[in-house]
């Protein structure tokens, strides 16, 4: 179900910076004020996962990309994760827009290893995502 929402070019350039340059740790995306385009809401180079989670509002939908680092076997691994954040307390219209616009953003971000869908913070907790990325 396509919503006709476009993806701002800044979304792609921020993602390329995260993916290739390793200068960013996470990107949070949102819709612009008239719901016609997906835009970058925030970027950060902070490796603090709790700081990333603090950018996911309790009552608003967001998409995000996080460069997830974890220990496995002999060393550190990284997986780029795509998050669809649709909290239970968000407005129904916003949830529908998030769901229908997700594919436009997701298809434009080449190099995602894992997708994470969250409706509450337990689903995006570090341990939950670690379990998901380490299975692959």
TrEMBL record:
It comes from the Eukaryota. Residues 4-134 form the ADF-H domain. The keyword Transcription does not apply. PROSITE patterns: ADF_H (PS51263). The keyword Protease does not apply. GO terms for cellular component: actin cytoskeleton; nuclear matrix. GO terms for molecular function: actin binding. GO terms for biological process: actin filament depolymerization. It is found in: Nucleus matrix. Coiled coil: none annotated. InterPro entries: ADF-H, ADF-H/Gelsolin-like_dom_sf, ADF/Cofilin. Keywords: Actin-binding. Belongs to the actin-binding proteins ADF family. This is Cofilin.
